[in-house]
């Protein structure tokens, strides 16, 4: 995969070029999960361009937008509108 085709930060891109990506990655949030499944998922995600992953995430998030739980209803609504617009624009671009 061409590291410059992905939306990684410059630091992550250089780690990829240098072959220093560690899988599974270190936890940012402690959760209980399967280390084997986490590794399998991360290996799969390493092969996908970030734009494809973002498109998949937007398409699959529509069912969960109603569960956004924040105190500010107008902010919640703007998040849902922006996510929906991004999905529509992405679909139209194909």
Question: What does the model show?
Answer:
The protein is mainly alpha-helical. The chain folds into two domains: 1-47, no CATH class; 49-94. Helix content is 56%, strand content 0%. It has four helices and no strands. It has helices spanning 10-17, 35-46, 50-61, 73-93. The longest helix has 21 residues, at 73-93. It is globular, with a radius of gyration of 16 Å. It starts with 9 loop residues before the first helix and ends with a helix.
Radius of gyration: 16 Å
Cα distance spanning the termini: 21 Å
Q: How much strand?
A: under 5%
**Sheet bearing the most strands, described?**
none
Class derived from helix and strand content: mainly alpha
Helices and strands, in order, run as HHHH
On the 0 to 100 scale, the average pLDDT is 77
Number of strands: 0
Helix content: 55-70%
Count of all domains: 2
- Please tell me what the overall shape is: globular
The number of helical segments is: 4
Low-confidence stretches are none
Compact description:
The protein is mostly helical and 94 residues long.
Task: Label this structure with key terms.
94 residues; mainly alpha; 2 domains; 4 helices
Please outline the helices and strands.
Elements lengths: L9 H8 L17 H12 L3 H12 L11 H21 L1
């Amino acid at each position: 995969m061409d590291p410059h085709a992905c939306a990684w930060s410059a630091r992550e891109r250089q780690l990829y070029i240098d072959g220093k990506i560690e899988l599974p990655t270190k936890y940012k949030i402690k959760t209980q999960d399967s280390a084997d499944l986490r590794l399998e998922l991360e290996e799969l995600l390493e092969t996908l361009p970030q734009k494809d992953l973002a498109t998949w995430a937007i398409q699959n998030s529509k069912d969960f937008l109603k569960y956004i739980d924040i105190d500010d209803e107008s902010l919640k609504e703007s998040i849902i509108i922006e996510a929906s617009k991004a999905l529509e624009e992405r679909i139209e671009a194909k």
